[in-house]
Amino acid sequence: MKQTAKILEQWLIDREQFYKSLIKVNPAVYKALVSELETIRITKVSKLTPPWIKVTDRVPDTSIDVLVTDQDRIKISYHLTSEVNPNVWEDICSKFKVTHWMPLPEQPENK
User: Is 9 in a helix, a strand, or coil?
Assistant: First the structure.
């Protein structure tokens, strides 16, 4: 999904560069097109790349696998308690201080 987001973002950048050639012809059209690109960027790209959640803001439900990071490495783990304690994770050593987490991506569809 991250690769798809990068491709979409590059397409948006390319379109914006192309639209700049229209600014002298019709500034209102240019402004409308750039506004549309920003709407696409906000609604599509952000959905393709789920945000990391700070463990100080919220922890996941107990015993549900999630991605966790210490901002250096990424692992799969699950939170062991429903308490807001960012340091109680399954199979995480004390040197790995979880700072953020996010849900796992969807499984691929069988076709």
Answer: helix
pLDDT in tens, 53-90: 888 888 888 778 888 888 888 888 887 776 655 566 66
Is-above-0.70 flag for pTM? no
Contact (CB, 8 A) for 60 and 103: yes
Q: Compute the mean pLDDT over every residue in the chain, rounded to the nearest whole number.
A: 76
Measured in whole angstroms, how far is the alpha carbon of residue 7 from the centre of its chain? 14
Q: Which residues touch 49 (CB under 8 Å, ≥6 apart)?
A: 1, 2, 5
Scored b (16 or more CB within 10 A) or e, 69-107 reads beeeeeeebbbeeeeeebebbeebeeebbbebbbeeeee
- CB–CB of 30/20 below 8 Å? yes
